[in-house]
Amino acid sequence: MISSVLPTYARAPLNFIKGEGCWLESADGRRYLDLGSGIAVTLLGHANPVLTEALTEQAGKLWHVSNLYEIPGQQELADRLVAASFADTVFFTNSGTEAAELAIKMARKYWYDKGEVSRFGIIAFEGCFHGRSTAAIAASGAEKMVKGFGPMPEGFSQVPFGDLDAVRAAVTDQTAAIIIEPVQGEGGILPTDDAYLKGLREICDATGTLLIFDEVQCGMGRTGKLFAHEWSCVTPDIMMVAKGIGGGFPLGAVLATETAAAGMGLGTHGSTYGGNPLACAVGNAVMKEVANDAFLAEVNRKAGLLRQKLEGLIAEFPDVFDSVRGAGLMLGIKCKAVNADVVKAGYEAGVITVPAGDNVIRLLPALTVTEADIEEGITRLAAAARSLA
Hints:
The chain is an alpha/beta fold. The chain has helices spanning 37-40, 49-59, 72-83, 96-113, 134-140, 143-146, 164-170, 194-207, 277-290, 293-316, 339-349, 371-388, and strands spanning 16-20, 23-26, 31-34, 89-93, 121-125, 156-159, 175-180, 183-184, 190-191, 210-214, 238-241, 252-256, 321-327, 330-335, 351-352, 354-356, 360-363. It has a 7-stranded mixed sheet with strand order 4-12-11-10-7-5-6, sandwiched between helices. Strands 1-2-3-15 form a 4-stranded mixed sheet. A 4-stranded antiparallel sheet has the order 13-14-17-16, with helices on one face. A hairpin with a 2-residue loop joins strand 1 (16-20) and strand 2. The chain is globular, with a radius of gyration of 21 Å.
């Protein structure tokens, strides 16, 4: 008999009822160090008092009004994002998947309005993940994503990650946009280097192709800059954010230049809940905390400490772990043991990590992780490794 909850997840037998900072408490009273943050979502930790206060205050005033009306908190958050980024305009969604849908629509509408109706192709990268809508899985092209859901929307192609020559060869007069994660998350914590993003920008500038950055997982301070692409000094035309921007409350956004968004006029897109007062109250509180140099400097300092400790862990358990990679507090350990076994052993040791492609486990702690949390995390990861070794 099918479960009342559609069984699309292989759920771990863990039942969390309470959280504080980087810690989770299960129904049986056991405490777990959360180095996954709900897959890079609880950016400021569980039950963060600043976010709790913002949400509670707004909940006592107004939960929801339609986007048929002005929403002051939404305007405030849009202004903050525009001031802190390349963008001229913002559309709010509830998730990264919805942001991907709009980014794709926006790129295609841009060319349609220019009279180039055949220019709708989207180039993505092998190992990418942009969500689970039909368009997003078509962008990924991976068999595990698309099998059984065809026929796929046309116009999507994939090239090897990190191969600029393959991109140059793939761009044609029918290419509308290139979409890329500055750091691949689901694919195994694979950062792009600065030269690669600059090369993509040059290709797009030379051909008129729009450049879309997916910063759903790597954005909002996770790499030590507010947005990961800032390290390369390259700006996109369109960018997707979600996950951390709501600190645990469902919120996403598409940021764009005025030129890229020019085709998205009245009636071209909409959302019932996107940018609602509750979400934007939390989003504004997140931005106030994260979008400042002192906070980001601390992220970088703690990221350096965590990476140093992980290098020592890998040296201690060379039969379990191979190497560490990533950026900021978006780190991955490539494993020699099966990554799912490492994650499971972590549960037994009281530490939460997240599996990814290329036999990697992801470490995505809250950006407020403390030095004591980092020390305890290494201790518990060592216990997990010891049980496997």
